[in-house]
Structures are given as C-alpha cells and as structure tokens.
Design goal:
alpha+beta, 2 helices
Amino acid sequence: MGVLVVIAGAFYLTGGGDDEAKGGAKSPTPSASTNPDLPPGVKCSGDSCTGKDAENMGCSGDLVTTAQTATVGTTVVEVRYSETCKAAWGRITQAAQGDEVQISAGKAKQTGSITAAGDNIAYTPMVAVKNAADAKACATLAAGGQGCTE
C-alpha cells in the first residue's frame, strides 16, 4: 500500500500526463510580430509599419494626428502621423479620380491615388519616421497642379 502512495505522489508532483498541467508549466513562445510595448490592436511600429495600411495596422483612429496640411486647388493634402506607431502617411481629400498623393521620409516613398469615379479621399501606405516633421506629403492632380506640405 505504501508503494502505491509513493507512486501516486510522484505522479501528482510531476503532472503525470495531465495536459493542463503540462501546458501550464510551459511559457508561451513570443511571436515575432507581437511587440508587448504596443497598445492592444496596434500591430507595428517604426520600420515594421513601412508599406502597410495605417487602419489595418491599428495606427489610425485615436492614435493619429494631422501634422501638416497644404491645399492644391480645392484638394487638401495632409501628413497623417501616429506617435504610437512611429509612422506617417499621406491623405488627400476633396480630390478627383486620377489625383495622386505621395508621402516621403528620407529615401522612403509611398503613393496612393483615387482610382474610382465618385471617390474623393485617398491614402498612402505608411513610412517610418522618428517624428512628424520628417515626413512630407505631395498631391498631383489629374487636372493639373501639384503641391506639397512644408
């Protein structure tokens, strides 16, 4: 009887086959795409944001500010910036089909355009920046005209 108690005790202490006990003992392997310093829903920061959509990556909404604005004809071109994501992107509003927006920061450039009739807003993918002043957005209008933020 004493041998059975010792075996049962050893089985209990080692987690003996209980999947929950084994799973609970392992520490989860961190995912390469997850940064524990980012708020919930934010999927990138800095260089990992370059070329990605701000909304899909959780960088828009309450996390974005309009850092710079310029007007080209009736079209407004903006540098949009997320401090949390350390990224900027361009946006044009009151635009027409064929109008284009470009964001640049150093050698990085991204472009967006209005492709469908009736649309009047376009965004670029993001570029990594240390601060909003590092980015410049330009609009090129299909009807002629070009302008940039300062």
